[in-house]
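Thread title: Can someone regenerate the structure for this chain?

I was given the following input by a collaborator and told the matching structure tokens would be attached. They weren't. Posting the sequence so someone can regenerate them.
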Amino acid sequence: MGFSLGRTTTNSRPNVIGDPTQGVARQPYAWLNPAAFASPTNADLLSGNFFGNSGAGIIANPGLVNFDVSVLKNFSVRERVRIQFRTEFFNFTNTPFFGGLGTVLGTPNFGKLTSAGDPRVVQLGLKVTF
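Best answer:
Regenerated them for you:
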């Protein structure tokens, strides 16, 4: 929740009142259902339950699929001189890695993925050995 309801050093958690993944597109703009969470009620607070009923780490970020590929070709120019041409592709399939899930209840970014990893990066290299 971003703050402590019981004036402790640990942030309080909301109550889970539904399925966080039901009825959402599982896209960056709607990774989980914000209506599935609610702040602890006054009755919870009076009974000493400042932390809500949701567990720590119950929300999973999307997985990571990453393929790096390297292709190279060696050329002999002379007996002792070689040239190597190298091409490297990082995130070859250009699959986005989303992260930065908004987890503070009541904020506009709650339930949304707000960042992404690097796109495909291509690196070319030329090496001469003698």
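The chain has one domain: 15-129.
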